[in-house]
TrEMBL record:
This is EamA family transporter. InterPro entries: AA-Vitamin_Transporters, EamA_dom, EmrE-like. GO terms for cellular component: membrane. It is found in: Membrane. Residues 6-130, 142-276 form the EamA domain. The chain crosses the membrane at residues 33-50, 62-81, 87-107, 114-132, 138-159, 166-189, 204-227, 234-254, 260-278. It comes from the Bacteria. It holds the Pfam family EamA. Keywords: Membrane, Transmembrane, Transmembrane helix. It is a multi-pass membrane protein. The keyword rRNA-binding does not apply. Residues 283-313 are annotated as: Disordered.
Length: 313
């Protein structure tokens, strides 16, 4: 890539890396489901008025995505993030691409080679190491974040049904449809939401706006401009910088503990994810970018091929 595009790729990874910090600030100051609803309300208000309404199969896809991606992925991710530090969450949530590969094997009967099998083993082994951190008093947040990553992977497979819609339209409409789901769950499981929102500082509001705009809409728009100009094999590996920056920012900005489990486990997981990303991109079946918006994977979801196996080492 030319130097301007390299700088653009670095900017996007910086936006995504700092998104973990902003999300942690939000999750520490708001009930997680309430935070998710506000995040989607901001995104929907910016996007929906300017985008076409989904119809037919696209509408069904967006409805399903509003559950799997909007409510389950983001609701679980912010819930888990409220229970662990940002650096730990940045590692665990990277298991989305490995889960996508597993779904490809289980649902689409894809046959994978030893390199991606090695990537899967490394990705989940790193999470086991991270789960052994001294401050990790319970395995519950690890399981919640793994569920968030699995929900991302499921959404990555579903999003192909929305190809008739512009990417931002998918984001806007699934955000709008997820809001009532999240509000009902928040009413059932959370307390003092209105009082908490009224008492938020401008710094927390800034973090929330950043989650919805800077780390999502702006970053993804820039990312797609790169994807339009360069092959996925060139662009996808840059996505591995975001969790590294997220881990570093959690330690340096938020003062989180730099335990050996976090550093070693993170390195193992990212090595495994890197193997999966690079091998999949070379075979023309990239499994996506850092988990955030489903439009990152439009056109990249595995095509169903129940009667045809592929060997992709």
């Amino acid at each position: 890539m030319p130097v301007p595009d390299i700088l653009l790729a670095l900017l996007v990874q910086g936006l995504w890396g700092m998104n973990f910090i902003a999300a942690k600030v939000g999750a520490d100051n708001l009930p997680p489901l309430t935070l998710t609803a506000i995040r989607f309300a901001i995104a929907a208000a910016i996007v929906v008025p300017f985008m076409p309404r989904p119809r037919g199969q696209a509408l069904r896809g967006v409805l399903i995505l509003s559950v799997t991606f909007g409510t389950l992925h983001f609701g679980a991710m912010f819930t888990g993030l409220s229970m662990v530090d940002a650096a730990t969450a940045a590692v665990i949530i990277q298991t989305g691409p490995p889960f996508s590969v597993l779904l490809g094997v289980l649902i689409f009967k894809e046959v994978i080679g030893w390199r991606r099998i090695l990537g899967l083993v490394l990705a989940f082994a790193g999470v086991v190491v991270v789960a052994g951190e001294p401050q990790m008093v319970s395995v519950v947040p690890v399981l919640i974040l793994l569920f968030a990553a699995l929900s991302w992977a499921v959404s990555n497979a579903i999003v192909k049904t929305t190809r008739d819609l512009p990417a931002l339209a998918v984001t806007g409409w699934l955000s709008l449809l997820a809001i009532p789901q999240l509000l009902v769950l928040s009413w059932l499981f959370e307390d003092n939401q209105l009082e908490t929102v009224r008492g938020l500082s401008w710094e927390v509001w800034g973090a929330i706006v950043y989650i919805a705009v800077g780390g999502s809409l702006a970053a993804h728009s820039l990312w797609y401009s790169l994807l339009r100009r360069h092959p996925m094999t060139v662009v996808a590996p840059w996505g591995l910088l975001a969790p590294i920056l997220g881990i570093a920012a959690g330690i340096l900005v938020l003062g989180e503990a730099a335990t050996w489990q976090k550093l070693v486990g993170g390195a193992i997981t990212l090595t495994g994810v890197g193997i999966i990303q690079i091998r999949s991109a070379r075979k023309g079946r990239p499994v996506g970018t850092p988990p955030d918006e489903p439009e990152a994977h439009l056109g990249d979801a595995p095509e169903a091929a129940p009667n045809r196996k592929r060997t992709t080492p």
